Give the backbone structure.
Amino acid sequence: MILTFALFVGVAVIVVGLYVAFVLRGETYDSTREILYEQAERIAVQVEQAESREEQLEVAEGISGLTDLRITIATPDSVLWDIRDSHFLSDSTVLSLEEMAVSAQSPIRFSERTSARGELMVYVALYRPESNLIVRVGQPEPPLFTLVEGMQIALIVGMVMALLLALVGSWVASHQVTTPLQAIRNSARRIAEGDFGEKIKVESRAAEFQQLATSLNRMSDSFRHQINELQRLTQIQNEFIGNVGHEVRNPIFAVSGYLEALGSGTLTPEMRKRYVEKGLINLHRLQNLFNDLIEIARLEYREDLIKPNLFDLQELLEEVADVLRPKADHKGIQLELENPHLYVYADRNRIRQVVTNLIDNAIVYTDDGTIRCRFRRRLDKVRVEIIDTGRGIPDEHLERIFERFYRVDPDRSRRSGGTGLGLSIVHQILHAHGEQIRVESTVGRGTRFWFELPYAEVEQPEAV
């Protein structure tokens, strides 16, 4: 940047200096010579119009007295008069001077020299063939010359100062520009090397650099978040693959073992029947596992699977109770499901799946007591709560219970025939509705799940 400024300003200095030194000075000298020539032409005409030498002398003497001109009138052989300020000068070398070598072939000549007074004189000599006279007029250097020289010096000094100031200014400007850029470059290099905690700090008042640093920091935060999310997803994926392999391997090995046992000829009919039943149970478990996996995949990648409509939430709850009540009665658990009739706008089949999974999960992990499902209106939402008096969930497990295959008690859930995907399906269904499932639990006292659905205003029929 400094070299660029120096180049442009230096070129400007050189161009202006050359113009002043050659063009402007040359034009000034040409103008001075042209004026001097016109004056000499007029003086020569006046001298030629005089009828005698005395009258010619008077003309030359009068003009010299009124001006600062040196007027010389001579013939090719001798000097007649050499006058300045009405004083006659005596110079025997006049005819040998450069400008006096005029002739019919070269009637005009110019020259410059320093006079005895130390002045720079500009001369023009004219040869007049009609009168055979040489008229020479000399003029001191005009004030315009001095002004031009002063301008030339002032311009050169000014341009040199401008060049120096431009160099200093370019250094300051480049320092102000390159320092923040270097800081941004170093920070960007560290971020590229994986140090996403690095923050780009710019010590500059320029809004553009501040905005650039803010944008880069925002981009770094986004990259860090995305990388953390990818790492988290990769970990979940690895766990998921391991869990799927484990969950699938056990039923397959069990079915394989039972089939091999059935091939033995020493089994009694009762043993064969028991092995067949156990094989079917494992096949049913394997089928449930794949059905749940397909269900989760469909919910994740197919938004059109959610088809909302109006329905009575209490009627849905009663349908679920008819299915699950025998299982609760078998364990001596009381279901409390009495609620007012409220309408919601959601996918009825999917919400029935959510409520079924939550109540069934509560039955599995509750040894005695009650399971209550209640709901109440909250502004434009209806909150649905499933509360049990079971064993509860430790705090360290609460954040992960909606992950696939995550089990608080793996042995107990496998004995119950669960796939470990029920709560994941609940989470996906509610997420597809734009809602969240939440949970709170106390070990030894029970667990409460709750979620919300959009409330739908429906006119109730009047009682007859």
The CA atoms of residues 434 and 453 lie 9 Å apart. The chain has a mean pLDDT of 79.
